[in-house]
């Protein structure tokens, strides 16, 4: 999977790191709501950190979420994810 692949309808792509507490929290929430996601660790996947930085003013801020429509959000709430996935 390349860093630019859009998620399937009803799912998200989440850029994260293994040590990110906000990422772990969002994954737990997504699992409890049955929202599918593909996780990409920006420390393991070539070009992922650069993509995240390009979306966040040069910062490698995680979690950064990509929605099926190609839009992105940084550290979104579960409510925001649910609204944007079902839109």
From TrEMBL:
Gene3D superfamilies: Glutaredoxin. InterPro entries: GlrX_actino, Glutaredoxin, Grx-like_ET, Thioredoxin-like_sf, Thioredoxin_CS. Transmembrane segments: none annotated. Pfam families: Glutaredoxin. Residues 12-67 form the Glutaredoxin domain. CDD domains: NrdH. It comes from the Bacteria. NCBIfam families: GlrX_actino (TIGR02200). PANTHER family: GLUTAREDOXIN (PTHR34386), GLUTAREDOXIN-LIKE PROTEIN NRDH (PTHR34386:SF1). This is Mycoredoxin. It comes from Cellulomonas edaphi.
């Amino acid at each position: 999977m390349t860093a630019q692949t859009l998620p399937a309808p009803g799912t998200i792509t989440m850029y994260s790191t293994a040590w990110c507490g906000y990422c772990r929290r969002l994954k737990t929430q997504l699992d409890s709501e049955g929202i599918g996601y593909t996780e990409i660790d920006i420390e393991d996947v070539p070009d992922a950190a650069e993509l995240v930085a390009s979306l966040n003013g040069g910062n490698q801020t995680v979690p950064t979420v990509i929605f099926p429509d190609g839009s992105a959000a940084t550290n979104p709430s579960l409510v925001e994810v649910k609204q944007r996935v079902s839109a």
